[in-house]
Amino acid sequence: MTTAGPADMGMAFLKGDEAPEEIIVLAYAMEKGLGRFYAIVSQQTDDKEVTDLLTILSNVEELHKKMLFNLYLSIDPSISDNKTFESKIVFDVMEGGFTTEEFLEKNKPTMQTIPGVLDIAMMLETQAMDLYLRYSQKIEEDRSKKILYDIAEEEKAHLGSLGRLLEIKG
Known about the structure:
Blueprint: H1 20-42, H2 48-75, H3 82-86, H4 100-107, H5 114-138, H6 142-169
Helix pairs in contact: 1-2, 1-4, 1-6, 5-6
């Protein structure tokens, strides 16, 4: 799989004609990748405050995954459990379109401080929100359009929370 760069964030993953289920699976994969990224970085820093923040951010991604899983169940109730659902996830990508390893390599030094972690988290959430909003405008099918818009709103809320946290901790 090719990895999207900053100029074409998400373009490699969404064509514009996806069914709602495909959109949710991709969004879930990106949330899973970002949570994994935060967990990896938290194990690679000695700063307890940074580790605690990364753990919180990883837990937030878990909440996003639960929301997406429940959304998927509302469309396809035949999936009986999360493990079966996750078997549909074939992407190794995080929000922003990067692989976890690639992004870690490029940003590890920044992820060693509270402001750095929050800046990176805000950048990724902004990119994800932008991706979902752009595609909500391109997709013709109403249900897919609404799902993308709703996911973008979730990212917007998360971005607001990160901004407030940056004001306090940054």
